Protein backbone atom coordinates (compact mmCIF):
# COMPACT_ATOMS: atom_id res chain seq x y z
CA UNK A 1 0.00 0.00 0.00
CA UNK A 2 1.23 3.45 -0.82
CA UNK A 3 1.35 6.26 1.69
CA UNK A 4 -1.02 8.29 -0.51
CA UNK A 5 -3.60 5.49 -0.50
CA UNK A 6 -3.37 5.08 3.29
CA UNK A 7 -3.83 8.84 3.81
CA UNK A 8 -6.93 8.86 1.55
CA UNK A 9 -8.37 5.82 3.29
CA UNK A 10 -7.84 7.34 6.74
CA UNK A 11 -9.45 10.62 5.67
CA UNK A 12 -12.45 8.77 4.23
CA UNK A 13 -12.85 6.73 7.42
CA UNK A 14 -12.44 9.78 9.66
CA UNK A 15 -14.91 11.79 7.61
CA UNK A 16 -17.41 8.95 7.90
CA UNK A 17 -17.09 8.88 11.70
CA UNK A 18 -17.24 12.66 12.04
CA UNK A 19 -20.33 12.93 9.89
CA UNK A 20 -22.52 10.43 11.72
CA UNK A 21 -25.80 11.98 12.79
CA UNK A 22 -25.48 14.90 10.39
CA UNK A 23 -27.99 13.75 7.77
CA UNK A 24 -29.05 17.24 6.76
CA UNK A 25 -25.50 18.46 6.36
CA UNK A 26 -24.51 15.27 4.55
CA UNK A 27 -27.18 15.63 1.90
CA UNK A 28 -25.60 18.89 0.76
CA UNK A 29 -22.25 17.14 0.20
CA UNK A 30 -23.62 14.38 -2.01
CA UNK A 31 -24.61 14.51 -5.63
CA UNK A 32 -28.30 14.19 -6.28
CA UNK A 33 -30.24 11.01 -6.80
CA UNK A 34 -30.53 10.70 -10.57
CA UNK A 35 -32.95 8.32 -12.28
CA UNK A 36 -32.10 6.92 -15.70
CA UNK A 37 -34.99 5.91 -17.90
CA UNK A 38 -33.57 3.84 -20.77
CA UNK A 39 -34.48 0.41 -19.42
CA UNK A 40 -34.10 -1.04 -22.94
CA UNK A 41 -30.34 -0.51 -22.75
CA UNK A 42 -27.99 -3.41 -22.29
CA UNK A 43 -25.14 -3.20 -19.77
CA UNK A 44 -22.47 -2.09 -22.26
CA UNK A 45 -24.68 0.71 -23.65
CA UNK A 46 -25.60 1.89 -20.16
CA UNK A 47 -21.99 2.03 -18.96
CA UNK A 48 -20.78 3.70 -22.19
CA UNK A 49 -22.71 6.84 -21.16
CA UNK A 50 -20.03 7.38 -18.53
CA UNK A 51 -16.95 6.81 -20.71
CA UNK A 52 -13.96 8.69 -19.37
CA UNK A 53 -14.94 8.04 -15.75
CA UNK A 54 -14.56 5.12 -13.38
CA UNK A 55 -17.95 3.50 -12.75
CA UNK A 56 -18.80 1.53 -9.62
CA UNK A 57 -21.91 -0.58 -10.32
CA UNK A 58 -24.09 -1.91 -7.50
CA UNK A 59 -26.70 -4.44 -8.65
CA UNK A 60 -29.45 -5.06 -6.13
CA UNK A 61 -33.21 -5.63 -5.71
CA UNK A 62 -35.86 -4.48 -3.26
CA UNK A 63 -36.72 -8.10 -2.43
CA UNK A 64 -33.07 -9.02 -1.72
CA UNK A 65 -32.38 -8.97 2.03
CA UNK A 66 -28.56 -9.01 1.74
CA UNK A 67 -28.72 -6.19 -0.85
CA UNK A 68 -30.79 -3.97 1.40
CA UNK A 69 -28.60 -4.77 4.40
CA UNK A 70 -25.50 -3.65 2.47
CA UNK A 71 -27.16 -0.47 1.25
CA UNK A 72 -28.25 0.42 4.78
CA UNK A 73 -24.61 0.57 5.92
CA UNK A 74 -25.03 4.35 6.05
CA UNK A 75 -21.51 5.19 7.16
CA UNK A 76 -19.87 3.16 4.37
CA UNK A 77 -22.34 4.36 1.71
CA UNK A 78 -21.92 8.04 2.64
CA UNK A 79 -18.15 7.84 2.89
CA UNK A 80 -17.98 6.10 -0.48
CA UNK A 81 -20.35 8.67 -2.04
CA UNK A 82 -18.08 11.47 -0.78
CA UNK A 83 -15.01 9.67 -2.11
CA UNK A 84 -16.74 9.16 -5.47
CA UNK A 85 -17.80 12.79 -5.71
CA UNK A 86 -14.32 14.09 -4.85
CA UNK A 87 -12.72 11.77 -7.42
CA UNK A 88 -15.28 12.13 -10.23
CA UNK A 89 -16.39 8.49 -9.95
CA UNK A 90 -19.86 7.41 -11.03
CA UNK A 91 -21.94 5.25 -8.70
CA UNK A 92 -24.51 3.37 -10.75
CA UNK A 93 -27.22 1.41 -8.97
CA UNK A 94 -29.07 -1.15 -11.07
CA UNK A 95 -32.21 -2.59 -9.50
CA UNK A 96 -33.10 -6.08 -10.71
CA UNK A 97 -36.83 -5.90 -10.12
CA UNK A 98 -39.84 -3.96 -11.34
CA UNK A 99 -41.43 -2.67 -8.14
CA UNK A 100 -40.94 1.02 -8.95
CA UNK A 101 -42.64 2.31 -5.81
CA UNK A 102 -40.54 0.17 -3.43
CA UNK A 103 -37.40 0.91 -5.48
CA UNK A 104 -37.75 4.71 -5.29
CA UNK A 105 -38.86 4.62 -1.65
CA UNK A 106 -35.77 2.61 -0.63
CA UNK A 107 -33.46 4.94 -2.56
CA UNK A 108 -34.97 8.05 -0.99
CA UNK A 109 -35.15 6.62 2.54
CA UNK A 110 -31.49 5.57 2.42
CA UNK A 111 -30.28 8.65 0.52
CA UNK A 112 -28.49 6.60 -2.13
CA UNK A 113 -26.87 9.36 -4.15
CA UNK A 114 -25.88 8.38 -7.65
CA UNK A 115 -27.46 7.12 -10.84
CA UNK A 116 -30.36 4.66 -10.62
CA UNK A 117 -32.05 2.44 -13.17
CA UNK A 118 -34.18 -0.67 -13.15
CA UNK A 119 -32.88 -3.53 -15.25
CA UNK A 120 -34.85 -4.10 -18.43
CA UNK A 121 -34.86 -7.41 -20.27
CA UNK A 122 -31.71 -6.63 -22.31
CA UNK A 123 -29.79 -5.93 -19.11
CA UNK A 124 -31.15 -9.01 -17.35
CA UNK A 125 -30.03 -11.07 -20.36
CA UNK A 126 -26.55 -9.50 -20.09
CA UNK A 127 -26.38 -10.37 -16.42
CA UNK A 128 -27.20 -14.01 -17.11
CA UNK A 129 -24.89 -14.40 -20.11
CA UNK A 130 -21.96 -12.20 -19.12
CA UNK A 131 -21.83 -12.25 -15.35
CA UNK A 132 -23.39 -15.55 -14.32
CA UNK A 133 -21.66 -18.69 -13.17
CA UNK A 134 -22.50 -22.26 -14.04
CA UNK A 135 -23.38 -24.52 -11.12
CA UNK A 136 -24.78 -27.96 -10.70
CA UNK A 137 -28.15 -27.83 -8.95
CA UNK A 138 -30.27 -30.92 -8.43
CA UNK A 139 -28.06 -32.82 -10.85
CA UNK A 140 -28.46 -30.25 -13.65
CA UNK A 141 -25.94 -27.65 -14.76
CA UNK A 142 -27.57 -24.20 -14.60
CA UNK A 143 -26.45 -20.59 -15.02
CA UNK A 144 -26.95 -18.42 -11.95
CA UNK A 145 -26.57 -14.71 -11.37
CA UNK A 146 -26.35 -13.68 -7.74
CA UNK A 147 -26.99 -10.35 -6.08
CA UNK A 148 -25.84 -8.21 -4.45
CA UNK A 149 -23.26 -7.82 -7.19
CA UNK A 150 -20.65 -5.12 -7.64
CA UNK A 151 -18.73 -4.28 -10.79
CA UNK A 152 -15.91 -1.81 -11.41
CA UNK A 153 -15.55 -0.36 -14.90
CA UNK A 154 -12.53 1.72 -15.91
CA UNK A 155 -12.44 5.01 -17.80
CA UNK A 156 -12.33 3.16 -21.16
CA UNK A 157 -15.46 1.15 -20.41
CA UNK A 158 -13.55 -2.06 -19.66
CA UNK A 159 -14.85 -4.22 -16.82
CA UNK A 160 -11.99 -4.42 -14.32
CA UNK A 161 -13.75 -6.53 -11.70
CA UNK A 162 -17.14 -8.21 -12.16
CA UNK A 163 -17.17 -9.53 -8.60
CA UNK A 164 -15.92 -6.48 -6.70
CA UNK A 165 -16.50 -5.96 -3.00
CA UNK A 166 -19.22 -3.74 -1.61
CA UNK A 167 -18.94 0.02 -1.14
CA UNK A 168 -16.70 1.17 1.66
CA UNK A 169 -14.35 -1.81 1.69
CA UNK A 170 -10.60 -1.27 1.56
CA UNK A 171 -10.35 -3.50 -1.53
CA UNK A 172 -12.73 -1.26 -3.51
CA UNK A 173 -10.90 1.91 -2.49
CA UNK A 174 -7.60 0.26 -3.46
CA UNK A 175 -8.90 -0.82 -6.91
CA UNK A 176 -10.42 2.55 -7.69
CA UNK A 177 -7.39 4.49 -6.46
CA UNK A 178 -5.23 2.48 -8.86
CA UNK A 179 -7.55 3.44 -11.72
CA UNK A 180 -7.71 7.13 -10.91
CA UNK A 181 -3.95 7.37 -10.33
CA UNK A 182 -3.39 6.12 -13.91
CA UNK A 183 -5.54 8.91 -15.36
Annotation keywords:
alpha/beta, 183 residues, six-stranded mixed beta sheet, single chain, two-stranded antiparallel ribbon
Describe this structure in words.
Helix 6 (100-109) links the parallel strand 3 (90-95) and strand 4. The chain has one domain (3-182): 3-Layer(aba) Sandwich (Glutaredoxin). Residues 2-30 have low confidence and may be disordered. Helix 1 (3-18) crosses helix 5 (74-86). The protein starts with a helix and ends with a helix. It is α/β, with parallel strands linked by helices and 183 residues long. It has 8 helices and 8 strands.
Strand order of the largest sheet: 1-4-3-2-7-8
Bulk shape: globular
Uncertain ranges: 2-30
* Structural class label: alpha/beta
Strand content: 15-25%
Distance between the termini: 19 Å
Q: Please tell me the CATH architecture by its name.
A: 3-Layer(aba) Sandwich
User: How many E strands?
Assistant: 8
Output the helix-strand order.
HHEHEHHEHEHEEEEH
The value of Rg in angstroms is 17 Å
Biggest β-sheet strands, sense, barrel: 6 strands, mixed
Average pLDDT works out at 83
Name of the level-1 CATH class: Alpha Beta
CATH superfamily: Glutaredoxin
How many helical stretches? Answer: 8
What kind of oligomer do you see?
A: single chain
Find the CATH topology: Glutaredoxin
Number of domains: 1
- Helical proportion? 40-55%
